[in-house]
Records
---
Amino acid sequence: MLQVQSQCIGESLIARDVVSTSTESGSLRLRNAGALGKNKAVLQKCVSTETSTEPWSSKEPSMPTEPVPYGRKTQKPSPVAEVHILWITAGLGCDGDSVSITAATQPSIEDVLLGAIPGLPKVHLHNPVLAYENGGDFLKYWYLAEQGKLEPFVLVVEGSIPNEKIKKEGYWAGLGTDPHTGQPITTNEWIDRLAPKALAIVCAGTCSSYGGIHAMEGNPTGCMGLADYLGWDWRSKAGLPIVNVPGCPVQPDNFMETLLYLLYQVAGIAPMIPLDDQLRPKWLFGKTVHEGCDRAGYYEQGDFAEDYNSSKCIVRLGCWGPVVNCNVPKRGWMNGMGGCPNVGGICIGCTMPGFPDKFMPFMDEPPGARVSSAAVGVYGRAIRALRSFTIDTVNKEPRWRHSRAELTSGYSPKTY
Ligand code: SF4
Ligand code: SF4
Ligand code: SF4
């Protein structure tokens, strides 16, 4: 057997030549050296980095004989073997949160579903935007869950919950058709059926968390967030409150990180998720946009943009960052990049329970901003002037660094 560093093999070997792999040592074990025969150039490169004593030695290297199992065994296996995620997008929404999470990287949806994260149960996702199945093939999981035959499962709700009690006929939103009545099964009906059976419920986005855009003043549906519908004191059968991950759409990693936390709770290896009084994960929504903004230095110096073609603070253009709980400027949007005000977009408070009504009209200067930015403007101008003197000073080298034949550094040895 020949053991070769995997990074020098590249795509030159074919799978049947590989007997086993070790992700810990980064090496492959090959059936025979002939596997490399038609890849002489590769072989030449590899011999210098092989990890066994001789390339053609009959001595067996100490490699695991078991193939690498599902996931990596770096922790004890999850006490729960499998868990399902039922994701209903049939609230009043735009599916934007389902699309958003495809951009997650910490963790990615692929990491969670393909077993790349140690200690997690095997996860099955049932989301209509991302599923391969459709029609009855997709809906069967919902009926199984309703019958208690899909245990355990986490319910994800996307879109706001309409009020089906306020009209005489028809329905606002639904998923699937009731075979007995031939009528749509309303979103509310699904929530009523599944909420008592779910281990946990997570709201993806501001619509399902608090009502969002669809629940603004003048709406005809009377819609609301899930906690308004089920009750703010609602608890799952596992004792968990509703977990809100707001955002319009939800920041991808915020949602996936929260889901991962809950999956660890399902596996029994995480403590109770810490939530604030709006049922948001505390560690994600405990700070304001302003506290994490790249432009906060400009605000502090009273240096404000007059138009969007500027890297200065955009509070006078309508940014609500100082009073909005959101970590997006710190976290970025996709793989650490972006983040509303960091890249020139005013914060419109899309994560907040009062969104959108309390932040409209968008792009007008927030009411408090005029007073606070005027106050900061006076102080900031003075501070900026003083700092410019200091900047001049610290931009110059000390005077004792010269090439003259004298030491002027102030060196003064003492004898005792
Ligand atoms: Fe769409 Fe925003 Fe509602 Fe999500 S929160 S469903 S992105 S409108
Ligand atoms: Fe604060 Fe907005 Fe200015 Fe950033 S752009 S410093 S969040 S007011
Ligand atoms: Fe929404 Fe403001 Fe956060 Fe951007 S920074 S995601 S607009 S709350």
Note: Residues 1-58 have pLDDT under 50 and may be disordered.
---
Amino acid sequence: PADAPWWTRAVVYQVYPRSFQDSDGDGIGDLGGVLQRLDHLADLGVDVVWLSPVYPSPQADNGYDISDYQDVDPLFGTLEQLDELVAGLHARGVKLVMDLVVNHTSDEHPWFVESRSSPDSPKRDWYWWRPPRAGLAPGDPGAEPTNWHGFFSGSTWELDEASGEYYLHLFDRRQPDLNWENPEVRQAVYAMMRWWLDRGVDGFRMDVINLISKDVGPDGELHDGPPLPGLPYGDATASVVCGPRIHEFLQEMHREVFTGRREQLLLVGETPGATVEDALLFTDPARGELDMVFQFEHVGLDFEGSKFHPRPLRMRDLKASFGRWQTGLADVGWNSLYWDNHDQPRAVSRFGDDSPRHRRDSATCLATLLHLHRGTPYVYQGEEIGMANFPFTDLAQFRDVESINHQVQAVAHGADPDEVFAALRRMSRDNARTPVQWDASPSAGFTTGTPWLEVNPDHAEWNAAAQRDDPASVLAHHRRLIALRHEDPVVALGSFTMLLPDHDQVYAFTRGLDGDTLLVVCNLGAEEQDLAGLLPETVGAEVVLGNLPEDDPAVLRPWEARVLRLP
Ligand code: TEU
């Protein structure tokens, strides 16, 4: 344990700068704003800040479409302010991890502009250019080189009229995929990464990093995927998720960029579709790839097929999923733990109960559950104060490219607009992107101008200022959970054992290290539970931390969470 990596004891906080704090009144958060809020982060006690993209970008996908990897967009500030942020965080003992988006660039990146300029361009092969399907002319229905459906709806191929060829974009058409088969692309990315590390940043959160290797057969061809039910497209998964050279690429990156500096850094990959087996390979320290990955299983249990077809979550599925990840990475590798990020609806609304009666208790209960697992917990801005989904009333309120593309395409394919709205209201990424609620003032202290996305009207009651000095608040509870991980080696390094796997409401597990055992029990529902009956060993155990004032030890109240030390 003494030689365990530093990040086993660490908690990471994600800043989505557009929605964190505005300092210049344009209604969009910026680096000046982050600099104003450093004390909030220090006070919470987090060890690392992951900063979502601030690079120059046309903002088609809020900065995940980058047109220059080595600068800061004027919308967010300057490179000097980024240096100030590194210094300001380091002065508080906090590291800064940058978002690394290298599966794709913006279509306005000079590399793509040059690549598009002519089939003879020396950069043509930096992206995925393909002629129309054999026998069809450019633009013909079905002429796309493969039948793949994109993450943001529609085909993954966009026709370039000038050359009559298509380019690949797994996300929006303004996010062309880089061709990692080309060694020049890889070297350009590695050089850029070294430049950031030399500037003092402490690692990378690597956007969809498991999509960078595409399955080109020996013939250099990309192949159709199996048809998707109800859509005129096929599933690209088998060709793009954890492709044949993914581990080779990551090991090469590791050698070229992290050699000699790995110990101090945090390398976390975002890996949609990765299985436990994939994650083992990514995070086995001996392989020299990544420290940990964000897996997507637990955020894929409350919908059918695609995220805009929601269905209720079954507790058993959640336990089975988390349980498998805990067991699968018990001896080798490491888990990232998250409920929320800028792509997911708010956890208290999704997994908890955001009604006035249960909001505080369910937010603190969920946090306890997450932070007591084995792995590195990630807190997404606003989660620490129990921010909830936005009460959308109209399709026109959505700003996110994924939501808008889905809306347009689903309706075009005959979906009922009311159903589309209901799904977006529940699942849209914009739920996570409303401005952070700092105080009860009209724009919640986020901006003096007009916020780019409406502030949640509940901010009058739910805000950081109201919670700062309240020991019963969601914020104070997060502070305690973070401190507990720092102090207690069982929380950081203990083994994990799931209890009551089939119970529909109580989520319980133990963590053990060197004969010391913590038992964690969470009531994920509104009915009281007979704790003494379910887990007799809890009777008489010391309460290390709870989310409600201590009362009858034999009973678990609605949304109550307790961390107990077994004798
Ligand atoms: O997300 C990738 C991803 O797989 C999903 O979370 C995606 O955002 C969507 O929810 C699928 O339904 C990453 C970034 O986190 C996201 O913000 C970007 O839009 C995306 O990559 C493209 O860069």
Note: The chain has four domains: 6-105+183-393+436-474, 110-168, 394-427, 494-566.
---
Amino acid sequence: MAEKRTTGEWQALDRAHHMHPFTDSKTLAARGTRVITRAEGVYVYDNEGNKILDGMAGLWCVAVGYGRRELVDAATRQLLDLPYYNSFFQTSTPTQIELAQKLSELTPPGLKHFFFANSGSEANDTIIRLARLYWSLMGKPNKRTFIGRTWGYHGSTVAASSLGGMPAMHTQDGKNLPEFAHISHPHWYLRGGDLSREEFGIQAARELETKILELGPENVAAFIGEPVQGAGGVIDPPMTYWPEIQRICRKYDVLLVADEVICGFGRLGHWFGSEMYDIKPDFMPMAKGLSSGYLPIAASAIHERIFEVINDKAGMVHHGYTYSGHPAACAVALANIELIKKEEIIERVRHDTAPYFRKAMEQVTNGHPIVGELRGVGLLAGFQLVKDKAKRTVFAPEQEVGIRCREFATQNNLIMRPLGQSTVVLSPPLVISHSEIDELADKVKRSLDATAKLFGFA
Ligand code: PMP
């Protein structure tokens, strides 16, 4: 247990020793960090006792909400029985085996084998290595390049950040790893022009064909995409997009990777985004909602036709993490899946909460002076902030409109996140109730109104 300290004391220690992810440390030091001390349901509490509505479910992960005894008990029991053992020495632990089996029931057909990791980034790194191994075993060792998308996010390791298409991450590194290429994101509002959503979906998908032909199909290992791009600003593609992507992948013998780290485990009102968009992936990384974030765990699902080749021909696969399939994390994931099923959380999201959430957000954004488009599926929302609706012009990055909006949200005790191009997003816990959605909508409205006023609208 951490000691009791004043917020000022925590901030001083934080400033002195703690380097934060995705943070400008100078700005943070000037403002002082917010210290979150506990949480319950859809609310987190800071050291000052403020009750804050968590519109982001942590980092898109706390699907079943905070304070769920079932998950805590599962971890405690497992930690007492067997806190750790590895799966390298021709050994397994029961929760690893059960979780792999359970995932084979829940994931799309053909995904029968699961490799465990601790984070989405590691799950994607695993897939890069396994896909290249597969092609090499198939006698096509040149098929190594991965094609991702601009504003795609697949993690922060060296390989995963090259796989993703976050402009600032690439700029910071100076140079991307070789054998990673990108096509544009299917952002109809900003890129669709006069095309209908459906027409644009096909056009955006065809960029993949052009890129494969440019690189040479004999050099391309796989295409990766999130069913709905999350960190890029909640970009939900037109329904024509994924079928066309899938057709192109099959035509050129390019593997298809659906990154379900955000979309998986009910976020879109289905177990997986692949279900909703009818994607039949060869690999599928998952994390976040797998354990609702109570303990870190991720998995890479592997299609049986790929596993069989590796199993037949590879011999020892030189890949693994000390905490691959950590027994306690697996126990929490199993308890989390059981809870999602028992409480029918996904059905409730699909038929009840998501439509209610959508309607509430539409009421907030319809006719709003700076919201050009409301995007999203299930319990995901992206608010596209624009300075000129007729021309669909976004605010310049240096205007930091999303950050200003987040600051107003913070004043309203709401966690909302600026992401992508001039966008703020929401991804609340899947257990959010109607009255909590009403409160969320009211806080979002106040934050958007204040932002509009600041930028001279309204
Ligand atoms: N893939 C996607 C789609 C993600 O959204 C994220 C994290 N936001 C990752 C991968 C990386 O996961 P992690 O932060 O656990 O490494």
Note: The radius of gyration is 22 Å.
---
Amino acid sequence: MDALELLVRNTSEVLTLEGTHRERAETALTPKPGACVGVREGRIAFVGAESELPSGAVSSSTVVLDAEGGFVGPGFVDPHTHLVFAGERSAEFDLRNQGATYLEIAKAGGGIVSTVRATRAASEDELVRLALPRVQRLLEQGVTVAEVKSGYGLDLENELKMLRAVRRLGALTPVELVPTLLCAHAIPQEYRERREDYVRLCIEEILPAVAREGLARFCDVFVEDSAFTVDEARRILTTGRALGLVPRLHADQLTARGASELAAELGAATADHLEQVTDAGMRALADANVTAVLVPTSTLFLRMRPYAPGRRLRDAGLNIALGTNVNPGSAMSENTALALGLACLENGLSAAEAYWAATRGAALSLGLQRHGRLAVGDAGDLVLFSCASFRHLPYHLGVGHARTVVKAGRVV
Ligand code: NIG
């Protein structure tokens, strides 16, 4: 065997996540007690007992990491973030804590459109500079891949600016960024009285320009009273799909408006949020094999009830993904550990199910077959944790335990 570039030894266990979401999560995590992990050319090349390492696997150039009895798993994949933005909304946080609701604030001209004002006023350079520490905080939690949405530009120039900022950011951080066009995040203020014109701007100009420049992999729509209708979302997402952008939806967050059913109809990759999903919506998602993306940090942050019915979604057979949803309005938190804790405490998942959702489930939701798993040939993205079991992550609430993060075989 050619020498490994990196070897991790002295683990409590390595979770390889080689199962499927259809089996018991404990089994799907595929724990390998006391195993070593080896990486070559940025990919997993060996998982097994140290005594089984082929001769020549370790040379003087191999970086050997001592896991000190902690567990090792794949890098976390954050499947839902809005981490590129300017400005902040701490005053709204304060208002909500005194009784105002997210929708009331949005209707009064705050909310998403206030971040739109700040983001439009910022340069591309500034957006990159502001987003970099947020990505760094995700990395510190053990996140090695993150989806990032536009959606605070809401016109051609500024949506392109945001997605170009995402592309530049991706070159500055070890975290791999997966871009999503979310021009349909809110009706911009200047289109309030002529929303159809904005929908047409999305369809006729923004989507084609983004597709031409190859700036996004997904196209997303926020279906909500304060945002877009199901019919508008259908038109935008089918146009996006024809241009090669995979549909996904902000679905049933504040009210149930048929967004889950639309996600199923379109064969969307994901339906995100789902706090208010109905039984019919849940069945439609399960039948169409749409991944449910849970973002419980925003349910907490907005002081809303109920949380998404993670337990029932999982029991209905859906693949579940879990994200931070970091954004200035509904979840100012890059804390993956907190999301894991809330997924257990409030969405009703077991520790194993939550861990699956933040790794393999999230990777699959982004179409990344070689991430969120540590099988031979997979991405050499791994995390050495300072605790012996994944169960400790949701239990030690909100406290990150990533000790060393490896991206494509390099310590980052
Ligand atoms: O996923 N719900 C819509 N979008 C974000 C919130 C964005 C904001 O309030 O700025 C979310 O929660």
Note: The chain has two domains: 6-74+372-411, 76-365.
